[in-house]
Fold each of these.
Amino acid sequence: MQRRTFLRTALAAGLGVAALRPAVAAACAANNQRIVSIGGAVTEIVAALDGFCRVIATDTTSLYPRGVFELPRVGYMRTLAAEGIVALNPSLVLASDRSGPEAVLRQIKDSGVDIRLIPDEPKIEAIAPKIVAVGEALGLNAQAATLAKAVEEDVAALRGQVATLKSKPRVLFLLSVARAQPMAGGSDTAADAMIALAGGINAASFNGFKPISAESALDVAPDAVVMMHQTLEAAGGVDAVLSLPAFASSPAAKSRRLIAMDGTYLLGLGPRVAHAGRDLAAALHPEATLSALPARAWAIKS
Amino acid sequence: MVAAVSEASMIRPRERAPLVLAALGVLLLIAIVLAIGSGASWLSPGKVIAVLFDAIGWDISPVELRDKAVVLGIRLPRVVQGIMVGAGLALSGTLMQGLFRNPLADPGLIGVSSGAALLAAAGIVFGAPVVVWLALPKTVMPFVLPVAAFLGGLIATLLIHQLARRDGETEIATMLLAGVAVAAICMAGIGYLSFLSDDRQLRDITFWTLGSLGGSTWRSVMAMAAFMAPAVLLAPLLANTLNALILGEREAGHLGIDVERHKKLIIAVSALAVGAAVAASGIIGFVGLVVPHLVRLMLGSDHRYVLPGAALLGASLMLVCDLVARVIVAPAELPIGVVMSALGGPFFLWMLRRRRALSMS
């Protein structure tokens, strides 16, 4: 399956069709739609529905697929600029419903641009409705239904496997470790949802992303620490983090369990959620053998 | 060159001043034309003029909905808001520098900015639950932030003013110190609110403190005008008082000016102007500090000219900075506070060096 995807991509690149977007499969039906995609998960879904070639600009939270780095950026999701977006002359603006400011969204609408808000909660259950909403906006309802069903099946399969696992490790997700002050992810975050999906217990008891003191971290005694590649490097690497006073005597440091994953892959809460969850589960439960999920065209790690 | 400038300003300043004011007026007009005519989307001058004439009923050439929306719905309210915010902040700065008789005085000293920032952050974090608790309709939500910011500025100013009163007199030195203390308390409050906030709220707070004219709609413009207009109209009336205050408070009293009443009026007008500006556009620094100095360099110290000059130059500066903010990273936008500080910081350093050079020569 993976070899087939590789061959398709190579062929497409050779034909120059995907010359600008090398990481996306060639099956993208370009039409005269000009889409501005706002929101990381929204952009991922558009790409998974083979609509990425229609995207003309994205916001700064869209980090997948790679092609986004060659497109213009309309700014951060929450602080958009009306004139900039209207100037791109889009036929459709797909925005996560967490975008803002509201006045700007209204100004875009008043300029006659078709703008659709996609519901975007940080929960696993919200992903399928997200996919359906994007599919509806793109006029790809059938493909969206298929994609949503596949994602739901994968999530259910993963959940089934995880339910049989005996261990439930205490996990601490660290967003960053700046100046030895770790920022942990509590409840109502994408990290919390992924930890639960992967069969762990979120050791952080508070809400949202908050700095955690060294004493509290020691108290919490995580069995595993999860970080993003991007911030792990900034923090100095696995040894630097695990030797911090906050973690030096934790079970995670003793078994040297610091799991690093790509930030967008892990926290994106898009179509790749089941595969990311499975990778995290495999890392959290090294003693168990989890069967692989079906390889999907959209589930490439980065 | 410095000597030549001060000599030139001694030669017939009264005759020069109206010309300079007229030049500032022309500068503002040019800034307005540039601001309406340029932006992230390319619209030819012909199209812009067509849209403007269409708005007053003259149909020159067909206008597309999109062009109309950009010029009338996005750029024009933004320009009007920019003029009011720029003029209000500059006037407030001039008033503060006259009141404290210190060229480094800034509207933030009386606590308006910190108070506004504190309640704005509170509005961002607690706005939704409070609206639900008070059983207010959802349509109130967009007004929570501006109203909170304005109230915060007002409360902080009143508090500082009360702290600085003794025997019916307002002590300026005490007011300054009280301002510093209140600012510290507000910063602590904002820090705690940042801790309580979730990811989304934290970003909203951060971007609000950087200031922006984006999202200006006619409704927000009208709301701000209601507060800004009285401030802008009252400020020039304080010119004579400010001129007298240069000599000192006691001397001004000897000249027959009711110093206490006028001090209260200066503080009130300044708080009103800054409160309205901050409520509408977030914290935009440096205008209140930089513009009065530039105007005094051009016009001398007579507040009858400096006040209107500051309003004109403040408005032009705001429009130009906003234009840069809108265009330089299009289709995204820089927060205007960033552009202002990038310009204001070096200017401030230059100003300090010049003061040192002058005092040494």
Amino acid sequence: MITTANLTKNYPSDAGNVAALKGIDLTVETGEFVCIMGQSGSGKSTLLTILGGMCHPSAGSVEVDGAAIYSLNDDGLADFRARHFGFVFQSFHLVPYLTALENVMLPLAPLKMSAVEKRGLAGDALARMGLADCAGRLPGRLSGGEQERVAIARAVVNRPAILFADEPTGNLDSTTSDQVMGLFTELHQAGQTIVMVTHNPDNGRYAQRTIRLKDGLVLHTTASCS
Amino acid sequence: MRPYQIALKNLIRRPARMFFLTVALAVGLAAVVALVTLSNSMTADIEHTMDQFGANILITPKSNDLALSYGGISLGRVSFDQRELDPSVLERIRTIKNHQNIAAVAPKVLGAVTVQGRELLLVGVDFAAELRMKPWWRLTGSEPSAPDHALLGSSTAQVLGLKPGERLTISGKTFTVAALLQETGSQDDGLLFVPLAAAQAITSKQGKITLIEVAALCSGCPIGEMVEQIAGVLPDAKVSAIKQVVEGRLQTIGQLKRFSLGMGGVIALIGLLVVFITMMGNVNERKVEIGIFRAIGYRTGHVMGIILLEAGLVGLVAGLAGYLLGVGAAAVALPLLAQSGHPHLLLQWQVAIAAIAAVGLVSLLAAIYPARRAGRMDPADALRSL
């Protein structure tokens, strides 16, 4: 479960501090599929990076299953991300010189487990995405949909408590988008907590709850994105 | 998959990115290795050549406090009551540990004589040993070989007005001028050389030796060690290295080595900057990739390790390539630069290890700041799309 209290983020600019988040209080329950929506500049990406332990808030706190993640030092926070979070980035962000299997194995690299175990977990994750035959291919030889599925496999290979996704279908056609969102639904149905940022209202229908942001504040929360 | 494997896969699958850095480092190192190998090889060559240029060890009686002067060597004035060396020392010199390094032993007896009303310094020598020790001597006439043959320095011949084949009398004993010594520019020009036994008879020093010059081949043996060894077997003699030869040799070697080290330092600095700039560019170019690593839980140390390992591996590959290239260049250049006709390329494993380690170290040092910067990169900043 994620709980935030008075989450604030200010960015310095030439005109002084710009408030990206202005005191966000929210809770994401374990196993919930939450969609964060809002216009550009509303603060949704900032909120996702802070929830994901990648950006220190200016004020407020983030607790994950009772742990105040920003009280950890840099290495502690990195370890926390490695063990508890998974990320699906916009533009896939696969490492170009690693094969699909190696990309999926990336989050396991800092973890203490055998190479065989890592390879097995990565292979399973790829198989779940229907990409068992693409394991040895470099990202440049995969289609956009395949790359996205490799990115999702990479995000879930460490069996994270929470999966964060930023515009996961932003670079995909509608058919492939539906397939990818179908994968998210399957993960959610398997008990995965998902926090997704999206512009696309069609993707919202896959989530249980939508948090709409405007000017750094929660505008309203609804049971569906659409 | 471990973090270090990421570095390996990046280098193996994207070799072009680090190719020019590797080439730049290899070429820089090759220049240094070529210079060092050349200087070492030329040093050995010069040593070998200089070993053939006369004596480098002088043996005189220990208690002799007279300042004799001979051949540019400080020997002092000729004195009649000076102590002499016993001929048995010639045998003992050959018993030292490095006796194989002794190229020639030239005993001498010195004495002042009057010839045609002029005071001259008479030098009794073993002509065979003397001529072997002084290959630069040019004679007008024939080599002295008979017991009554004399060799005149160019100035002496001029003063006495003698030519080869003419006769001169020294203390009642008649000699034939076998040859004149062409001008050497040294004190040899003003000397009168006769066979050792004849000089001993003339100067009443039968069975005595005033001094001994030794030519030692010192490529594998420091001259100081040879001096100590000879002094060990000749406790009553003063054994010293002839400074002008040794210092001249050391100066030549030192200049070559200083030049090599200077060049090495400059090239190391340039290499450091090249690696630094390349790695900084590399880190900036891979910002997103590093952001991914950081986002999915790589610690600062993991990311630094990846960058440093890449730099270190590039350094090692460049070091190996540069060493081989440098040795090859030295092999081509040595025959053109060496003094002797058959120079030997001196390959030292220490140079190979030092060269490869130095480039690896330079690469690592230059990559520390870029690696630190990469390791401390904020994942949210790196992944601007988020």
Amino acid sequence: MTVSLVLVVVMAVLIACGVYLLLERSLTRVVLGFLLIGNGMNLLILIMGGRAGLAPIFDASIDPVEYNDPLPQALILTAIVITFAVSAFLLALIYRSWRLANGDDIADDADDIALRTGTRVVPLEEASIDIGDTEFPVEVQR
Amino acid sequence: MLIVLLVFAVASVALVPLARRLKTRVFWVAAVVPLGAFVHTLLQAPAVLSQSAAALPLERYSWITELQMTLDVRMDTLSWVLALIVTGIGSLVMFYCGSYFRDDEPGLGRFAAVLLAFAGAMYGLVLADDVYLLFIFWEATSVFSYLLIGHYTHRRSSRGAALQALVTTTLGGLAMLVGLVLLAVQAGTSNLTVILADLPAGPLTTTAIMLVLVGALSKSAIVPLHFWLPGAMAAPTPVSAYLHAAAMVKAGIYLLARFAPAAVDVPGWREVLVVLGLATLFLGGWVALKQTDLKLLLAYGTVSQLGFLVVITGFGTRDAALAAIVYLLAHALFKAALFLIVGIIDHEAGTRDLRKLSGLGRRSPWLAGITVIVLASMAGLPPVIGFVAKESVLHALLVAAQGGGETPLDAAGQAWGAVALVGVVLGSALTVAYSIRFFWGAFARKPDVADITALKVVSRRFVLAPAALAVASLALGPLAGPVDTAVAGYPALFAEASDSAYHLALWHGLTPELGLSALAIALGALLFIARTPFARLQARVSRNYTASDGYWGTLGALDKVAVRVTGVTQRGSLPFYLGVILVVFITVLSVGLVMSDSWPSELRVWDHPAQLAVGVVMIVAAVAATRAQKRFAALVVVGVTGFGMSALFAMQGAPDLALTQILVEVVTLIAFVLVLRRLPARIGDANGSTHRLLRASIGIGVGAVVALTAIVVTGARIEAPISLQWPALAYELGHGSNVVNVALVDLRGWDTFGELAVVIAAATGVASLLFLSGRGDSTPRLNRAEVKQRIRARLDRIREQGSEGELRNAWILAGPTLDPRHRSILLEVVVRLIFHAIIVLWLYLLFAGHNLPGGGFAGGLVAGLALVARYLAGGRYELEAAVPVRAGSILGTGLIIAAGTAAAPLLLGGAPLASTYWEGQLWLLGEVSFVTSTIFDVGVYLIVVGLILDVLRSLGSEVDRQGGDELAPAGRGGTAATGVTS
């Protein structure tokens, strides 16, 4: 099977820009990067479908090889809708983040930083076992 | 025997509710169970003593047949003796507990149940004939001992000690498991008797035996894993008497004794055991002489005695085996009794510290008398069983060192025998010394300490258990002959007893071992008399570092390493994690690409020249998106890439995709705008890009790797695609001409079903993030009449103020509810004109989709766009008027329809998602064929509409409401909050 170079290059650029944006701290840019990557991935599946062909509407007189591969098309359709659903969710996250923190950046986790800089102490067990000299310590010698 | 085990299990569970009623008397009930087992075991005596392998009691119960796991229990002499010890001492300790604990002791039921369960587990351990069954009971005893040691749950020392014991014995148990598995795999069976009957020589066997040794030595508190035993003295004294004298620590000795006949030829067996045993013997004795707490003195004494047992058990001659099994018995009897006596002293005098105890002997002479008998057994004084046992040990080692006995040893064995002999004599001296120290510490009157005045009367019932053990020790001494006959089965495994073989007896005449015994006793007495200078010597010599410190140090180091590793890898920054994941992705794929060899031989440049143009536009747009500083600008260029995608789809021959992509892109843009109108225009310096170069290189790397992978993978494809059969399948079986649509609802219907679930989850997520309370269709639901009346009222008010309002019947009802600044007449007119056309369009797309481009997704998106148009024109009240139904209901209905279509064929005997069709002639419409998968499409459609409605309600209406886009009551002239930012 052969590959269409233009499609491959476009896909590579989309994914590269998408990843660049995905590694950002601003959630808005992350969502845009997510959209770009989604488009890039759809293009990847389309490339897997092979050569461009006729639209897959059945006609008895047409050889099945002439159609563009319908299986990747079905998968891409699913992917498009799911990408939309997830990006709607991310948008809701942005909005909520803005309402709560007046900013939409992805903050560092405070607990992890405390662990790394040693400000959070991990308690260790006591290093000696002292059992005292009696098992009934409240016994009073009468 | 299996029945007895079952009784143990059931009884221990039943004890918990009983304890609540009976309080401490529950222990007497509990004591009946091991007593019954003891009697049952005694009754097996004829079968066991018959010395024929076939007559031994053997039970087999098939458990997991696929793994050939059976529950095998077998009682030979060794198991028999140990079972008697475990059950007999178990019942005595239970009985003692009845007097030891108070009625208000917390966790009494739990304690009784776990103690009985422990007795059962121990009983099973010594009887198990299957390697895995043995391990199960082994670990069960570890777990129960953890629960028992930690009985005083509120004391930190108890918890720490319990954990220490658990960790140490379980680690040893794991090593033992590996060894047992190696042996089982090598022998092809998991039956212990079969494995030991024929143990092949070789490195595998040696490794396995050494691993098993690790387990046995950790359980029996041998150097260097001995530190958990003194720590375990945090347990209640009955627990120490049972577990750490008679039962749990004996499990390791039992394992050694069981393996000894077969493993004595394994290189290193005797050497390791003698060395470690002697080390433990000396260490335990040395430290015991420093102790001021009677219980700790006994604990270190136990450690020392266990070392002694290990030396003699692992030695491996017939005489040594006889000595080992007798000493096992003697040790269990005297050690348990001593611990019980310490418990009585603690109970009555309130302290175990020998510096504070004085005059106890005068007050309780009976207790002192019992103690003397038991200590004589420990020190090896006649006429008790301890003396008989010690004599036999010395004899066995002496004979081995001289090269005599049933199986003479080679020179190396003789040397080890000599070493062991010397060590045992010196160790016995230490034992005598701390025995005397115990008696002196507990009972003697010390000149500078006041007498113990506050003493409760020791009830006879309380002293019964140690008294019984003392009587047993005393009685078995003269009965050495019958004892010898009873245990003869075990030494017989090593070598047949010849006529001149050694037999147990109280008096053998003036033999060398008698002299050695006398020597040891004399040395010990001397050590005791010279205790003050000896204590000074000890203080000068000993360091402060103990093996226990090693344990805590290891745990502390483990914690520190864990914190360090976590600190390095978990930096808390999401871009960092993503970056790491992507770098690994690049690396792995690059390696795969470098190693692959299926590069395609030819490349097309394009399928259609227009692809180049569209591609260039998309590339420019994507790069622009990375550099955009304003939110809307970035959004627009990303939208351009989306529209470019749809052009590419159309050129590739995928009309359905192109249609859906355009619609989705529009809806996405609108959703974005709805959110971004509340955010600042510029993305801002607070979120400025950092590490640009690094991120760019990761991005370029990922893009390049994916592109190359696409090229390689398509080049590797040689088979014909299965979708060549799809058009025919779609037409004949699916009754649709649009292959893609048939694929979505029929051929790959489950994919669609999963996608519906994702969509519903996302929709619910959006709603839950926006609505703070309830699914919040809190905007009042209006019907046309109500709204008309409201508007009329408002218009009346406006008219009163003299401004000209819209008096005609407005089709877009809620128009007047918007701030006049936000209304667009053009938009309202256009929406009114095209709305009904849109409705026709989505109906068409839905039902024609089966044969022409369209389908449920496209139809749903178009319907959603119609709703969007109404919302944009009239605000949220308009949306309510357009769709008075809740979004959740629409989603739910769609899911029910889709699920129903999937499940209904099951009821009719077909596969899920199977479809059928009806064809007929309909008046006016001509030939119509209806396929049931269209119903599935309807479900899909409803869900897509529900999603868009949810998005509109949340990101549109709710954001409006939270932003205060209300029209204030007329009369104040209406103030609207800030609206759309440009």
